[in-house]
Amino acid sequence: MDVNFGGFVPLSTVDWRGRSVCTVFLRGCPVHCFYCHNQEIQNGTDWRTTDEILGLIQKSALMVSGVIFSGGEPTMQKEPLVTMARGVKKMGLLVGIQTNGAFPETAKALLDENLLDLVHLDIKTRWEQYPRLLKVKQPVVDNIRTSLALYKEAYFDGRLPSFEIVVTLFRGHEEDVPYIAEEAEGIDLVLQQGVYGEIEPLSFDALKDLAADLGRPVRIRTREDGEVTYDNNRIIVADSIVFTDIRQARRPE
Question: Interior CA angle at 122 toward 11 and 36, to 5°?
Fold first, then answer.
């Protein structure tokens, strides 16, 4: 079976929290975010066989505990993704996806076969803002909401071990956070610092203040400090080291 291939990272320590994994990128995406770091694989073709990609994964198998399928949008290629996920499971590795949720039929197929161990779902903004900000039509938004419901159901009934909702946040869109947090009730929520061009990124303190207003644990990712958990005025690094000020956690320059 052929797959439109976007790239391969044989060893990554940043794509799956707490794990070393390899990452497979697949081409194509129906949502063209202006800030996407992988714009070069939103389009184009590089056809490979799924056996070739599984061969790349096999070479990394001794160094990793799982595989992340990313993109582009990996769930856009349903049959190749399901085929590769089956192959990864046969290697004894975990399977995760980074997805925008636009293809619920792929989500259902993966969940029905218990092929997913982690879903990292990007929710871009409030539902009513998707058509204007991301130039997508309402059926795409409906699909994303359907995928969210499928992943939620699987997570809450134990079929999906790990599920996180990620918000890449830019200045001027802070008001989206409470709305998205409602969708993420009971699910890991990540506020990720948006970085693009000359737009001034939100600071850690700005993201911390947004998290504090939610009254729940929130993971915060910034380019300066990596990922930490903010919970009730505590900044938790590596799940155990606790600070009250992010400056205490930073390495001396």
Answer: 70
Q: Where are the domains of the chain?
A: 2-160
Structure tokens given for 223: 């380019």
Task: State the amino acid at position 152 in one-letter form.
Answer: K
Ordered per-residue pLDDT tens for the chain, 253 residues: 999 999 999 999 989 998 999 999 999 998 888 787 788 888 899 999 999 999 999 999 999 999 999 999 999 999 999 999 999 999 999 999 999 999 999 999 999 999 999 999 999 999 999 998 888 899 999 999 999 999 999 999 999 999 999 999 999 999 999 999 999 999 999 999 998 888 899 999 999 999 999 999 999 999 888 899 999 888 888 766 666 666 555 555 5
Query: Per the structure block, which two tokens stand in for 37?
Result: 């770091």
Evaluate the CA torsion angle 98, 237, 176, 224 in order and state its sign.
negative
Sign of CA dihedral 70, 11, 51, 38: positive
Encoded tokens for 163: 């599920």
Q: Which residues contact 217 (CB under 8 A, 6 or more apart)?
A: 229, 230, 231
Contacts 24+ apart (CB under 8 A), 210-218: 210/169, 210/174, 210/177, 213/177, 213/178, 214/177, 214/178, 214/181, 214/189, 216/181, 216/189, 218/189, 218/190, 218/191
220 and 207 in contact (C-beta within 8 Å)?
A: yes
Peptide bond between residue 72 and the one before it cis (omega within 30 degrees of 0): yes
Task: Report yes or no: 23 and 8 within 8 Å, Cβ to Cβ.
Answer: yes
CATH of domain 2-160: 3.20.20.70
Q: From residue 134, give the alpha-carbon distance in Å to each of 36, 43, 183.
A: 12, 16, 19
